[in-house]
User: Which sequence fits this backbone?
């Protein structure tokens, strides 16, 4: 008899034949788990789960350490790039000012305290790329302008410093590339706030 046929007949056999019913009960009595059996099984599962969890925790900790090492490498790369870029930037800006007749000892990246958050709503720190007194100069340097956000922030920096020192400053925006889509609006904005745009020539030789 096929298994499927037997399973179909089984309910009827149990109902009509006490001998079959007794045989099934006897067979099941040897395999049905007691409460202690169930408790032991649960405890065994708990132990196995704890072991698996501990193993997973170790793996995640190892992954975290790997990510930390990778992040440290990226931080070092960023730091190295920033140092090189700052040196190149300083050299180019100094050369451009020299072309204008200024022999300046520049300090790149100066910081000022903005108590009232005039420049940035979320921080009191104001970083200024170029700041020089006598002659009074404020400058901003960027590789590329794709929108006007940086320019508007630079304008607020200039207004903030002029109010702080109660003096006027010549204002320069150094940029290697300007997106053509904003050029017209940029020209209007720079003219409005008396800011000179300088696009350095990289192949220039003294």
Assistant:
């Amino acid at each position: 008899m096929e298994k499927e046929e037997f399973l179909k007949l089984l309910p009827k056999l149990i109902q009509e034949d006490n001998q079959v019913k007794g045989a099934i009960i006897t067979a099941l009595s040897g395999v049905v788990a007691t409460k202690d059996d169930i408790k032991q099984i649960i405890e065994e599962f708990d132990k196995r789960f704890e072991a698996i969890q501990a193993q997973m925790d170790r793996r995640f900790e190892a992954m975290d350490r790997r990510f930390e090492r990778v992040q440290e490498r990226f931080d070092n790369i960023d730091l190295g790039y920033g140092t090189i870029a700052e040196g190149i930037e300083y050299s180019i800006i100094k050369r451009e000012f020299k072309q204008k007749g200024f022999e300046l000892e520049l300090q790149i990246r100066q910081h000022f305290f903005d108590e009232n958050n005039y420049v940035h709503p979320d921080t009191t720190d104001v970083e200024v790329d170029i700041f020089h007194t006598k002659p009074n100069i404020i400058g901003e340097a960027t590789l590329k302008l794709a929108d006007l956000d940086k320019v508007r922030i630079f304008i607020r920096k200039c207004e903030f410093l002029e109010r702080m020192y109660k003096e006027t400053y010549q204002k320069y925006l150094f940029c290697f590339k300007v997106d053509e889509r904003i050029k017209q609006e940029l020209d209007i904005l720079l003219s409005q706030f008396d800011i000179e745009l300088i696009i350095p020539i990289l192949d220039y030789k003294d």
